[in-house]
Every structure is written in C-alpha cells, then in structure tokens.
Amino acid sequence: MAPQSMNMDWILKDLATSVPETRHVVVLSSDGLTIAEFSPIPGAVGTVETAERLAAACAGLQSLAGAIAAEFPHGDGRMRLVVIEIDGGFFYLMAAGRGAYLAVLADDGVDAGLMGQRMRDLVARIGEHLSSAPRSNEPAV
Which residues form a coiled coil (predicted)? Predict the structure, then answer.
C-alpha cells in the first residue's frame, strides 16, 4: 500500500460508514495497485488481500470499459462508472482522478442510488487527491 493511504483513511471511512451495507472501499491506480483501502466490518480478516485482488481486477475492468466507451462517437472514450450487480451485492468502479479509481463492494441491501451519489460527491470534493502519477522505468536520482 502506498504511504499516502494513511492520509485517506478518514475519507474512505466516511464513505464506508455513511452508506449502510458497505463492505470494502479501495482507491487504486489505473495499473491495478492499491493506494488505500478501508473496510467498516469489525475485525475483518484479509482486507489488504481483498483490496489487492479488487485493485488487480479493476485494472482489467477499467480497460474493458474504456474499450466500450471508445465505440461511442461523442465523448473522450474514458470510463466514468461501472456498476456490477451480483448475487449478494454490488460492485462499483468510478474514475477518481488522473490515473486513479475508487472501487466499492457493498451487500445487496445497499441503497444503490445513495452509494453512487456519495461516490460522486467524494470524487468531486477530493478528486485531485485521488490520483496516481504515471510510473516510470527511469531510475530515481
């Protein structure tokens, strides 16, 4: 996890606790690395591993969504929001800043509209803080 994750704990906690039925919130880079994560479930085991699996899966999803978006003649071809409803819950993936995404897992009792609204509000308020600089292969000086 990136060092900046400590700065995001309160932000992710606010989202997770303001929408009942939230299981996990992850901020990730476009290449699938976890930047920050939070789970409101007391004593949750394996939250870091869950975040890493979600981040890796999200990299593929955002790529697929981008390919679909490119088929629309108007717009910039970038993915803004993906919602997947599965047995037992929902998965949300939202563009959250340059090179960063916000992902949420929620149980099936979640208010889907409220979750989408809170995610949009969070990204609008602090989207510039939810970004990941492009990685470089150049050695650090």
Answer: none
pLDDT tens digits, residue range 103-117? 999 999 999 999 999
Judge whether 110 and 92 are in contact, CB under 8 Å.
Answer: no
CA distance linking residue 130 with residue 30, whole number of Å: 11
State the Cα–Cα distance between residues 14 and 85, nearest whole angstrom: 23
DSSP strands (E only) in 12-99: 22-29, 34-38, 81-86, 89-97
- Contact (Cβ atoms closer than 8 angstroms) between residue 95 and residue 128: no
What is the C-alpha radius of gyration for the chain, rounded to an integer number of angstroms?
A: 15
Q: Which two tokens stand for residue 85?
A: 């409803």
pTM above 0.85, yes or no: no
Residues 139, 98: Cα–Cα separation, whole Å: 23
Residue 12: CATH number of its domain? 3.30.450.30
Residue range of the domain that includes 41: 5-129
